[in-house]
Design goal:
The chain is α/β, with parallel strands linked by helices and 405 residues long. The protein has helices spanning 2-26, 97-110, 129-138, 161-173, 182-193, 224-230, 251-261, 272-275, 297-300, 303-315, 317-320, 325-336, 362-367, 386-392; strands spanning 45-46, 51-52, 86-91, 118-123, 143-147, 206-209, 215-216, 235-237, 240-242, 286-288, 293-296, 342-344, 350-352, 355-357. The active site is at 293 (nucleophile).
Length: 405
Amino acid sequence: MAGQQRYLRYIVFALAIILLFFISSSSSVPSAQWPSYKGDQSAVADPTTNKPAAPLAGADKDSTATTPNTQNGLPPATAGGERMNATFVTLARNSDIWDIAESIRHIEDRFNRKFHYDWVFLNDDDFNDEFKKITTALVSGTAKYGKIPKEHWSFPDFIDQDRAAKVREEMKEKKIIYGDSISYRHMCRYESGFFFRHPLMLDYEWYWRVEPSVKLFCDIDYDTFKFMADHKKKYSFTLSLYEYVETIPTLWDAVKNFTSVYPQHVVDGNSMKWISEDDGKTYNHCHFWSNFEIGNLNWLRSQAYIDYFTSLDHAGGFFYERWGDAPVHSIAAALMLKKEEIHFFNDIAYYHVPFTHCPTGEQYRLDHKCSCNPKDNFDWNGYSCTARFYEINGMDKPAGYEKEQ
């Protein structure tokens, strides 16, 4: 019995050997032979021949064939043509670093990666190393850092400090936005009359103002600075609205005092009808939202604008009330520029809390990879002054605007 069992085991083993030999010799599928890989290779294997392909263009012995190697710097600007003498300008503090980083990323991705314009950062204190390191890495142009002179960020000697403090306390009780803030008042005064005089800004003719936490929603495929120059524009906006009445109760009185002393600075063909509905007797509070501006610095440095700012500054409203730089800039543009020198950038999709400008026109939004919801567009809202801008300039409103009202 034991002999028979051994005999059967020998037969099964022999049959298994024969079967394995048959399978291996009759298969038509070749075994896989993957190319060996070394970290310093700069070529990719050709899957048809299993041999290394020719080296990638621009590769060297020490580079790895993955994504394009940009270690030698940013790629060249993708848009050709002449560059304007222009810069982005941002007023920020060190604590704003991550909010301004977000803004830079939006500007670079949607526009400046094509043009590589400079960026000027201004602060009433010294920028720290972290702020400089991060922002320098993010911008594609040259980053410059400037400190604001103390005389431009302090109470001028003609301001009654006790009166100003009393006003802040009253505004705090009335819960007026930024009503009790000293730094906000310094900021508004600085943006109204000094940023364009900073030594770093004197190198430029054009500026694009950028604030922390803003967003661009559409690709911008042309040079906005060159557009402004070619079309003889001096000031531009994306959003407009009515100002808080409580913050500027005597601003228009100060403006009328200025125009009576300097009538020569009020140009013919201006936009008075946009800011007043009774030929200048009163102000309707319309203003361009100045957290976005693309403009001409030479206009702001002109004698007309300097006289205007100096007159308002001595009226004391930046501290005795809470005059914002937005109505100050807007009134100046409306009175001292011709209507055709002010431009509305419908095609620049922009957000600054809490308002959105999303371009009116579906085809434009599709063509320029816009990510904004047209239902969020503020332009045709009743609190916006943009429809009025179209009307006083005799412009046709964009197709489809009725759906966004």
